[in-house]
Amino acid sequence: MSETLVLGAVAYDAKVVPIWDGFQRWFASEGLAFDYVLYSNYERQVEQHFAGAFHVAWNSPLAWVQAQRTAAKLRRGARAVAMRDTDRDLTSLIVVRADSPIHSVADLRGRTLGCGAGDSPQATLIPLEHLARAGLAPERDFVVRRFDVLVGKHGDHVGGERDAARALLQGEVDAACMIDGNHLVFSNEGLLARGATRVLAQTEKYDHCNFTVLDGAPQALVERFCKLLFSMNYDDPRVRPLMDMEGLKRWCEGRTSGYALLESACDRFRYLDSFFERMKVA
Amino acid sequence: MATARASTSLELGELGFDSGAHVLVKRALVRLAPGEQLELRGSAAELGIHAAAWARSEGHEVEFAPVGAAYVLRLTPGAAHGARWRGVERTGAGAGPEHVVEHPPQRWGLAARGAAVEAGAPEFDFAHASKLELWADDLGALYRQALASQWDPATAVPWNAPQEHSEELEDALVTVLTYLIENETAALIVPARFAASVHPHFREVQQLLAIQAADEARHIEVFTRRATLRRSQLGLSTAGGQASLKTLIDEPDFALASLLLSVLGEGSFVNLLWFLHEHARDACTRAVMKLTAQDEARHVAFGVAHLARQSREDASLAPRLAAAIERRHDALRGTAGLNAEVFDALIVLAAGGFEPADIARGHQAVVELVRQMHAGRRNRLRLLGFEAERAEALSALHTRNFM
Questions:
Q1: Where do the domains of chain B lie?
Q2: B83 contacts in A (CB within 8 Å)?
Q3: How far apart are CA B324 and CA B321, in angstroms?
Q4: Does A247 contact B at CB distance below 8 Å?
Q5: Contact between B290 and B275 (Cβ < 8 Å)
Q6: How are beta strands A56-59 and A210-214 bridged, if at all?
Q7: What is the ipTM of this complex?
Q8: What's this model's pTM, rounded to 2 decimal places?
Q9: Is A92-202 the same fold as A5-87+207-279?
Q10: At the topology level of CATH, where does A92-202 sit?
Q11: CA atoms of B223 and B232, how far apart (whole Å)
């Protein structure tokens, strides 16, 4: 494994295979031997990252927090080395029906909030943190209805958000959580008719996925991997299809300043306890 | 928010990104001078949220500030803006949709002639991608003529016309129709297969092949319908006939397949269909034969036109064509050729009765038909550049199965 950069990624969708196959071909053409291992869930991926099964993890924001907190408990180092331009400065929305009597976050008291999968940072943990900061505790002040699609994939598949939006329109929930971009996607798809919904609240900005490296990873290999990522130019027709599939226009340096909201949520809801037990670092 | 950069202003009014604002924004971005920003103004409810999400997905930077109930946003185009148009390649070498190049690259793929193809498009594998191999003059006119000549079997054929001929003549006709159907099936498969492997840059060729296949589909329908007007079962399909047709289906070379199918086979069929028209005993059969003969004549015209052009420009074609005729002749040497039932049925149809004098007349008519077919093939081979004597010899080698 010393000469080949091995990536760990979660198979949240069938398209993950052509994406990393494409990267493998391109890295090879640039002289970097690259391989990848797919996991069905992020918890297994983080666990195997610490077990040394691969060098770089393509982590969801929650997987990053899991890895970073685990590393801290083990007195090891975890770094976010790269991320997509589209991973930066997302917000999540809490959306109500346009004719809803809910006009402020406080009006959610006694109501039902539709969230994504329980492990979705964007459609569950971060919106719940936003409400908690406004004084509303889940299950005490309002009911949380989770749309648990493919738990373990941290909401990457969007299915939970879509189901929550549908439930909102059907009156099954009083409000629904989704990423700002998905509100636009659902609107343009016609799922949310123009004027049918109203944005009740918008969270602060946060960051999404990153490539995570633990201390002890082969430095030269990781540097070469990052250098090649940063050299990918959307003007280059060889890499443009890969960037389109992965949903970015350029790779950015990894930064960890955009995970504070999620970390607060994890702390507040003791969300990581069971994971730490699994990792035997509790 | 405050910045000294030059900007162009775009007023969106109530139009949001959930109802198409991106169209106006992209249009304005294209017109920005280098380094310039785009200032958006609008009052749609979620303009700020959606603009930020849209800009993020497009790689643009956006700063925004609500101004009362409205928004002002400043958009800085990202480096990826317009990337798809950089390095595009114009199919037809920039000379417009009518310009046909000699060797269109496989990477032009399915793009319309005259389109701009994004760099990095996949390589296709169209087996037939040379103008010399495919092209004919006046292809557009041939296609328009084919389109204008389409007919509807339901209305063009008098299916209920009275039938007064004998059961034996009907049997003879069904025998011939059975033979025609399997021949037309071969004539459908061959152009359909080539239509799928011709480079789409030569769209007129594809169109003509497609309409030929559609013609043959209609012919199969009308022959079948006519055959089953009075019979519940069809006639004999012979091993020799199928062996002859299989050599057509198996021919992978476009020029050789055109020669064998269109120039020689369908050319002979035109004579046969007019013969059947002449000797038809009912108005329905007469109409069917006339309509199908007219279609077949167009197929022959295309085959002759593109092979004549290719032959003029490529001296190596004629020997290849001749070799193909000889090869097919050798391959079919051990087969019976036209089945005896069909040959006899043609005599009976031309005879119209079973008196010795009728049969003699019918026989003479079929002999004349075969002579006409041969003369036609010879003339078309002359058009392809063969000397008279060579054309005569090659025509004589054509399959005895006619097609």
A1: 7-76, 87-125, 131-396
A2: 234-235, 240
A3: 5
A4: yes
A5: no
A6: antiparallel
A7: 0.87
A8: 0.77
A9: yes
A10: D-Maltodextrin-Binding Protein; domain 2 (3.40.190)
A11: 14
Q: Domain coordinates of chain A in residue numbers?
A: 5-87+207-279, 92-202
Q: Measured between alpha carbons, how far is B279 from B276 in angstroms, rounded to an integer?
A: 5
Q: Are A100 and A131 in contact (CB under 8 A)?
A: no
Q: How far is A170 from chain B (nearest CA, A)?
A: 20
> What's the CA gap between B188 and B192, in Å, rounded?
6
Percent helix, percent strand, percent coil in chain A, to nearest 5: 40, 20, 40
Judge: domain A5-87+207-279, CATH 3.30.70.1350: no
How many of the other CB atoms lie within 10 Å of CB of A261?
Answer: 23
Please tell me which of the candidates B49, B57, B118 has its beta carbon nearest to residue A199: B49
Cα(B157)–Cα(B177) distance, rounded to whole angstroms? 16
Distance (Å) from the C-alpha of residue B46 to the closest C-alpha of chain A? 8
Nearest CA in chain B to A199: B46
Determine phi and psi for A12, rounding to 5 degrees: -85, -10
In b/e form, how buried is each residue of B368-378, taking b as 16+ CB within 10 angstroms? ebbebbbebbb
pLDDT tens digits, one per residue of B275-318 = 999 999 999 999 999 999 999 999 999 999 999 999 999 999 99
Pick the CATH number of B131-396 from 3.90.226.10, 1.10.620.20, 3.90.1150.10, 3.40.720.10: 1.10.620.20
Q: Which residue type sits at A141?
A: D
Check: CB of residue A83 under 8 Å from CB of residue A71.
Answer: no
Q: Please report the number of interchain residue pairs, chain A to chain B, with beta-carbon separation below 8 angstroms.
A: 74
Is B18's CB within 8 Å of A85's CB?
A: no
What residues in A contact B52, CB-CB < 8 Å? 89, 91, 180
Give the pLDDT confidence of B346-380 residue by residue, as tens digits. 999 999 999 999 999 999 999 999 999 999 999 99
Q: How remote is the C-alpha of A249 from its chain's centroid?
A: 18
